[in-house]
Each structure stands twice: as C-alpha cells, then as structure tokens.
Design brief:
CATH class of the largest domain: Mainly Alpha
Helix content: 40-55%
Number of helices: 6
Order of helices and strands: HEEHHHHH
Number of strands: 2
Largest sheet: 2 strands, antiparallel
Shape: elongated
Distance between the termini: 52 Å
CATH topology of the largest domain: Ribonucleotide Reductase Protein R1, domain 1
CATH architecture of the largest domain: Orthogonal Bundle
Structural class: mainly alpha
Length: about 160
C-alpha cells in the first residue's frame, strides 16, 4: 500500500486480514485525520493467500512520462477535444469548443476537466525540469503570455 501518512493503509490491511492481521494503527487526531504510525515496510500474508506490503507514508509523489496514462485515464476529454474547432483549444470559452459544450450540456463534470488539466500542468512542469528544450519552450510561452498581459490596459 502506498499513500500519505495517516491515510489508512495499515487500517485497510488489517480489514483485509479479517482479524488475522494486527498492524499497529493510531487513533484519529482531533480533526478526524489519521496519524503517522508505520515506520517500516511490512509484508503481510492475508488469509486469502494474497500478500500486502504496508509502507510508511509518502510525503509526495510525482508523475513520470505520464502523457499516455493521462490520455488513457481521460479518454472522454481527449475524444471530445478532438472535435474542438481549434487544435490548441484550452477548453475555457473558445468558440467551437466541444469540451465546453459537453460541460454546458451536463455530459462532462467541470471538476473532471479541472483534474485533467491539473495532471497535464504537473506533467509539463516535470518535463521542463528534466528537458532543456521543453524548459526553453515553456519559458518562451510564458514570455509571450506575460508580454500580452502587460500590454492590456489597467482597470
């Protein structure tokens, strides 16, 4: 099991163990969140014969080369986006946007689009950290954007 500290990995392993497993768990904090209790990995054989590895909590996780995985997880959005009028549609009010139309018609939840865009932004950021060409492209894109912002009259 992987996840943040206090997410319930040990509790879930105990539940899967149906009483045959007794990993240490902590009481919930006053705010209802779990406490960090696991300090080392532990391999547990469950009554079904399956095995689980309980791990200490992670502080953070990052995507690596996840473009294809993101597209596969959000096929509804990528298929809709293929029908947008513009190939570089941002899906936020452009004319002829199939994704915005699906949101307006109730066929797509805006929160799902937000999740998709968040993962895509994180993937682009990670790509710029390790690829000099991607970093230069992102810098050039940002430079054009901020130049346009500066040209707008102040209100």
């Amino acid at each position: 099991m992987i996840g943040p500290s206090g997410a319930g990995k040990s509790t879930l392993t105990n539940a899967l163990g149906a009483g045959a497993v007794a990993l240490t768990t902590g009481a919930l904090r006053d705010d209802g969140k779990g406490r960090h209790t696991t300090t080392a990995r532990e391999l547990v054989v469950l009554p079904s014969g399956a095995v689980a590895i309980d791990t200490p909590g992670l502080r953070g996780m990052a995507l690596r080369d996840a473009d294809e995985g993101i597209s596969n997880a959000f096929t509804d959005i990528t298929e809709l986006a293929a029908d947008c009028r513009f190939a570089d549609c941002a899906h936020r009010g452009e004319p002829g946007c199939a994704v915005a139309r699906a949101i307006n018609e109730g066929d797509l939840d805006v929160a799902r689009l937000d999740d998709y865009e968040k993962l895509r932004r994180e993937q682009r950021w990670l790509e710029t950290k390790r690829d000099a060409r991607a970093r230069a492209q992102e810098h050039a894109r940002a430079k054009v954007f901020y130049k346009e912002v500066r040209r707008q009259p102040h209100r």
